[in-house]
Amino acid sequence: MARNPDETRFSQQRDRVLKAAAHCFNRKGYSGASLKDVANMLGLTDPALYYYVKNKEELVYLCYVRAADVGREAMQRAVAEGGTGLEQARRYLRFHIEIMVGERGPIAIMSEIPSLKPEHRDEVLELSRQHSKNFEDILEAGIADGSIEACDVRMTGNAIMGSINWIPKWFHGGEAAADNVIAGFPDVLTRGLAAKSV
Amino acid sequence: MARNPDETRFSQQRDRVLKAAAHCFNRKGYSGASLKDVANMLGLTDPALYYYVKNKEELVYLCYVRAADVGREAMQRAVAEGGTGLEQARRYLRFHIEIMVGERGPIAIMSEIPSLKPEHRDEVLELSRQHSKNFEDILEAGIADGSIEACDVRMTGNAIMGSINWIPKWFHGGEAAADNVIAGFPDVLTRGLAAKSV
DNA sequence: CAAAAATTTTAATGTAGATTAAAATAATTC
DNA sequence: GAATTATTTTAATCTACATTAAAATTTTTG
Q: Which residue did the predictor score with more confidence, A176 or A126?
């Protein structure tokens, strides 16, 4: 029936599990959120989750991988459309934020990578590093093409990623609010505060 | 002996406990970090911590209050010196970051406020809201005096606070690095990316 | 240095919550 | 609609901490 293997009931339910988990983990942290918290959000009882994931650690791991996927997807789409470094940076931010505050949210904040078991930890760390690296590359391209002011790209990247990562902490699903964030956030991050006329 | 009540051995040790706790919580989260983790950092055993705090929840609470104090102190000093809104905003960021990456760090990220017990949660939430409000006021003052471009102050505030909050995630004590962050971060956040000449 | 106070330790207790097993229910298939 | 497969539940287990109590050690003070 399912054309795409990801359209199976199992995969759909698993996605719902991951989203519920992301919501709970974002609120209370990995260990602070219980499997019961997650299950209750879905109208299930905790042991039911084990039908979808091996254990809690894997649940977090999958949330983090999903978060990384979302980031990479936004980045790839932004780069694919070309343009100056600044344009790519702004586009990436818009895409990423669109996803985070949209239907596919909430996305897990990767704030407890050290709590993952070593293999998972290293893998997720690598995904995260690669993403940061890609963003820094965009910044450097922008500096090279003159669209972005010379700056410490590592630090600038950290600053902007911090803003992005923190979004799930204060954004909670308002419909109109989402549009507002999508429209305004990339500007805030790339344009700065200073008035043009001063 | 102690001129200031905060110079007693007890208070000093308690501060060391809070700093160690902040470090552990920032890495693994509130529930993910065990009291043993915290105690070991200080060369102590876990029950020793109960000499300084009532329980683990109070430990997190105190870390959060300390974080709020630091933010408020930076804000007050910045405002006290006057100047345009933009100047105050930049000064506040510099002060706050100086403290975070300096001797008084690490400072706890207030990322699990919902896990606190109701009284503590409400109190910390109020401190956090007040801090955000104060920053938004600075932004509005800057818009009014023409130093800051018109913007959604709520969203802009969230963006910048997210950057600040995330610092402990990637900054880990390099001496030279600290100066670098202090010197560059406020610029990144307030100046934006776009090249002036374009 | 002896007594008192402060600090830390070892040993013991209790509990929440992750995990497993087996049983029950619901959905599919032939 | 009976049999098979998928999904969820109830009931039971196990363990990692948080916490407490009592004892030991260290520090301070007269």
A: A126
